[in-house]
Amino acid sequence: MDQTCDVVVLGAGSTGENVADIVVRGGLSAVLVEPELVGGECSYWACMPSKALLRGTEVLAEARSVDGAAQAVTGEQDVAATLARRSSFTSHWDDSGQVEWVAGAGIDLLRGTGRLDGERTVVVTAEDGTRTRLTARHAVAVCTGSQSATPPIDGLGDVDSWGPREATSATAVPARLLVLGGGYVGCELATAWQALGSQVTVLQRGDRLLPRLEPQAGNAVAESLRKAGVDVRLGTEVTAARRDGTEVVLTTGDGEEFRGEEVLVATGRAARTSDIGAETVGLEPGEYLSVDATLQAEGRPWLYGVGDVNGRSQLTHMGKYQARQAGAAIVARARGERVGTGSWSPFVATADDVAVPSVVFTDPQVASVGRTAAEAEEAGLPHRVVEYPLGSVAGASLFADGYEGTAIAVVDTEREVLLGMTFVGPAVAELLHAATIAVVGEVPIARLWHAVPAYPTISEIWLRLLETYRG
Questions:
Q1: Claim to verify: residue 347 and residue 388 sit in the same structural domain
Q2: Which residues sit in the known binding site for NAD(+)?
Q3: Residues within the annotated binding site for FAD?
Q4: Are 455 and 370 part of one and the same domain?
Q5: Residues 103 and 18 in one domain
Q6: Which family is this sequence assigned to (predicted)?
Q7: Helix 316-334 vs helix 14-25: angle between axes, to the nearest 10 degrees?
Q8: Known binding residues
Q9: Nearest by Cα to 103 from 35, 32, 40, 23
Q10: What CATH number did the domain enclosing 347 receive?
Q11: What is the pTM of this model?
């Protein structure tokens, strides 16, 4: 079968859905192509189920940290209820609600595996073998995302390991869980499963957890995990894996062995481009798509790489942001309009450069945006680091008895604007957007003095940081 439309979108995750929605709102037609669940990784195997697994632990920790409320907590977390609540947030891995939304938005959905087949052409193979050839008048947007990458460890491919999908959808708590990797996924899921009753061991090759963030963040999370009973091993190089009956055995370079019922591989992500027909348009299968600021593939004005697939910033909210920008650019170009590429153009994704916000939902939470001190140093920017204990702020001491946390500001001393901000502590996620606005808007330090934080809230940390900076 042959079909023509304005835009073909490969991948119906949150990024692809947003690209399709934007172009349809702009008056174009769009076909979404998806071989799995509509809604993608975030809805079923990442953001939503992982945060649902963590939320009960977070609430209990908050209650236990306030005298008076702590006495009311007389039991432990109900594991079955927590797993059931997690499953409710994935709609029990049923995408009918999202399919209904797609139809209501005026977007066509084609179930099957889509592969590029030359310029502006996609061939979709359905589960029953039926093939449909789609031709796009204006654009093909590749939004196929990323997948868990398996490190080159001898035997690891033969032990039936968990990836993030298995770890967020498991229906039973493993007695012992080995976690390979100490990044966002490894730290969050170690926190979740330890709290639900698993004995967790984290094996991190580097010398600290959360290596892309400020050192204080990784140090605080490591300390908290250890207090919770997690065995955190830093500087540990796993060289081999094998099954021994019902156990997985991981062996390090120095011969030490670690055993568990399951092993979660959380060492990184790889572009999901191996089987999308990249070679038919001169691209390398398995590689991230190289794109410009409007998410247009270099040398291919009809092709867009949006979200994880371009490797710029593998976070759901950044994928949605890129989708909005790419969708707007596709619509404008289809109308023959000029697409501006200035820093604040509605058609470009510039936040990816220096203003990516992220939250690690561990205990403590880590919320960050912009450059770290190390990144500012590497970029050769004149800067000063200002640090202040969050527990010294009245709002924090009211939030939790013995509140511990840190706020770290990286200030450009030449332009007197924020380059980056990191918060480490309970419930700091809700502080992040104010910091994001300050970084993106390059709000002068002198003007931030007039953004008065309400008392007594944790946001008073802004005043304390400014006072410290001024000396």
A1: no
A2: 181-188, 268
A3: 51, 114, 144-146, 308
A4: yes
A5: yes
A6: Belongs to the class-I pyridine nucleotide-disulfide oxidoreductase family.
A7: 30
A8: 51, 114, 144-146, 181-188, 268, 308
A9: 32
A10: 3.50.50.60
A11: 0.95
